[in-house]
Amino acid sequence: MEFFEAKNFYLVGVKGVAMASIAQCLLDAGKTVVGSDIAEDFVTAPVLARRGVQIEDINSVPDFAGKKIDAVVYTAAHQGVDNPQVAAAITAGIPVYTQAQALGEFFNQKQGIAVCGVGGKSTVSAMITFVLDKLAQEELSFSVGVGEIIGMSKTGQWQENGKYFVAEADEYVVDPNAKAKGLEITPRFSFLEPFATICTNLKYDHPDVYKNFEATKQTFAKFFSQIKNGGLLVINGDNADLVTLTSQLGREDLKIITFGEKEDCDFRLADFHFELLVPGKFNLINALAALACIAQLGFKPSEIIAALNEFRSTKRRFELVKKDEQHWHFDDYAHHPSEILAVIDTLNENFGEQKKLISFQPHTFSRTRELFDDFVDALATHTKNIDEILLIDIFPSAREAFDAEMNCDKLVAAVKNKYPNCQIKNLKTISGLADYVKKSDYGVFITIGAGDIYHAHELL
Question: How confident is the model over 379-426, as pLDDT tens digits?
Fold first, then answer.
C-alpha cells in the first residue's frame, strides 16, 4: 500500500512537535488520526485538542487489526522502530513509516522549502511560513517543528492544490540505535528533495550519532546535493565552515545566495531595515535569512519585511511568558552552547542593567558530555556580574541510557573553577528553581532548554 492510499493512521509519539505537525497534514488530507504518547503535558496539546486527535497510552499495545489501522508513523523518540507498538504493527503486517518518511511524502509533491542548520531553523521556518501565509495563503502547505506560531492556529497544513511546502529539516537520525545494530545512520532530512534549502548555521551537534564535526559537515553536504536541478541554496555567509562547504559542492545548476553581516553577502543586514517584534540580533539574522529565501520566489522585499515585522515569535523561542511592573519572564528552547550565547547576548542588549536569573536545563547526557567545555564558556563568558546562573538536573532523552557520571554539579564546579566571579548553582528540580525565584530580587527570569524547564513559570 502506498502512503496516501492509507486512510487510518496511528502516530506513535504524537505529542512531539514534528509528529503533531504531520498529524495536522494528515487530517487536512482527509485521513483519520489516532496517536499515543506519555501522559506528560506537551506544548502541542492545544493544537492536537483543537483537531480532536485521540491520544492513547504509549505503554499499551493496541489491537491494530481491531482498530482498522492502515499505517503507523513513529519517531526516533520512544525507542523508534524498536517501540513495542511499532513492533506490533510490523507483526500485524501494517506498513510503518518514520516521521521523516511521512514528511517527505508530503514535501516532495510541492516546491519544497527546507530550513536546516544548528540554531535558528525553527524560527526561520516559522518566519517563512508566517510570511507566505500572508503573501501566498492559497498556495501554502507546511510542517514546522514548533509548538505554536503565535498568531497562527496550525503548525502543520496540507493544501492539495498548493504550490509551496515549508518544512523544518532536521539532521538528527531516524534510528539512534543504528550504529549499535551495525547499520548506517539515516538523517531525518535525507527523505526531502527540496526546491530551496536554507541553512542557518553549521556547527557540531548530536555527538551521540555524529562522531565529529567533519561527519556533520558531510551529512549537510549530502543534503545540499539533494536540492532539485536548478534549485536554490540560501546560506549564512558569516559562517566560514558553511561557505567553504558550499563552495565544494560542484553544482553549477544551483543558485547560491548568502545572507549575513559581511560585506560580500548577497543580503547584508546593513542594507535592510527591520522593526521586529522579537528581540535580539540573532532574530534580525533569522529575518534576513527568511527575506533572502522568499525574495527568490518573486515576492517584493518591502512586502516580505512588512510581514516579518508582524511576526510575534513561536512558543519557546524567546517567548514572553508573563510580565508585571517589576519582572519580565521569558522562555527559550536553546540547548546548544551557541544558542545559549545568543540568548544571553539578547538579554544583555535589552536588559543589560537589570539583574537576570538565567536558568538552564541541559538536554541529553551525550550533548552535555561532548560539548561540556563549550557549555562552561557559554554560561559564563557573557553573563554580567549581577546575574545568576541557575541550573536544574539534565533532562535525558528517551533514546539514551542514564549516565550517573555526567551531572550539573560537575558543570557548576567547572564554571566556578574557570570563572570564579560567576554566580552559579544547581537547584536540581523545577520546584526548587521556582522556590528560589520567588525569594529572589530580579528584573528578568528566563528558562532555557529543550526539556521541561518551562513548567517553572507555572509555579510562580
Answer: 999 898 889 999 999 998 867 778 888 999 999 999 999 999 999 999
- In whole angstroms, give the CA distance from residue 143 to residue 53: 17
For 313-348, write each residue's pLDDT tens digit: 777 778 888 888 889 999 998 888 988 998 998 899
319-459 matches 3-98 in CATH topology:
no
Q: How many CB atoms lie within 10 A of CB 252?
A: 5
Is residue 292 classed exposed, middle or buried when 0-12, 13-18 and 19+ CB atoms within 10 A define those classes? Answer: buried
The whole-angstrom separation of Cα 351 and Cα 354 is 5
Cα-based distances in Å from 423 to 303, 415, 449? 45, 9, 19
In the chain, where the domains are located: 3-98, 108-308, 319-459
Q: Where are the alpha helices (DSSP H) in 195-314?
A: 213-224, 240-247, 281-295, 301-308
Spatial contact of 429 and 359, defined as CB atoms under 8 Å apart? no
Closest alpha carbon to 22 in 10, 38, 5: 10
Report the CATH architecture of 319-459.
Answer: Alpha-Beta Complex (3.90)
- Distance in angstroms (rounded) separating the CA atoms of residues 76 and 366: 16
Rounded to an integer, what distance in angstroms lies between the CA atom of residue 425 and that of residue 421? 12
The position carrying cell 514528511 is 103
What is the rounded distance in angstroms from the CA atom of residue 178 to the CA atom of residue 399?
12
Q: Helix/strand/coil (H, E, C) string of 383-421?
A: CCCCCEEEECCCECCCCCCCCCCCCHHHHHHHHHHHCCC
User: Pairing between strand 319-323 and 328-332?
Assistant: antiparallel
To which residue does cell 524498536 refer? 82
Q: Hey, which residues does 54 pair with through a beta bridge?
A: 34
Residues 6+ apart with CB under 8 A from 189: 100, 114, 116, 169, 170, 171, 223
Q: What is the CATH code for 108-308?
A: 3.40.1190.10
Other CB atoms within 10 A of residue 142 CB: 32
Measured from the Cβ of residue 457, the count of other Cβ atoms closer than 10 Å reads 19
**103: pLDDT strictly greater than 80:** yes
Whether 94 and 88 have beta carbons less than 8 Å apart is answered as: no
Q: How far apart are CA 149 and CA 129, in angstroms?
A: 9
- 228 in Cβ contact with 201 (< 8 Å): no
CATH of the domain spanning 3-98 = 3.40.50.720
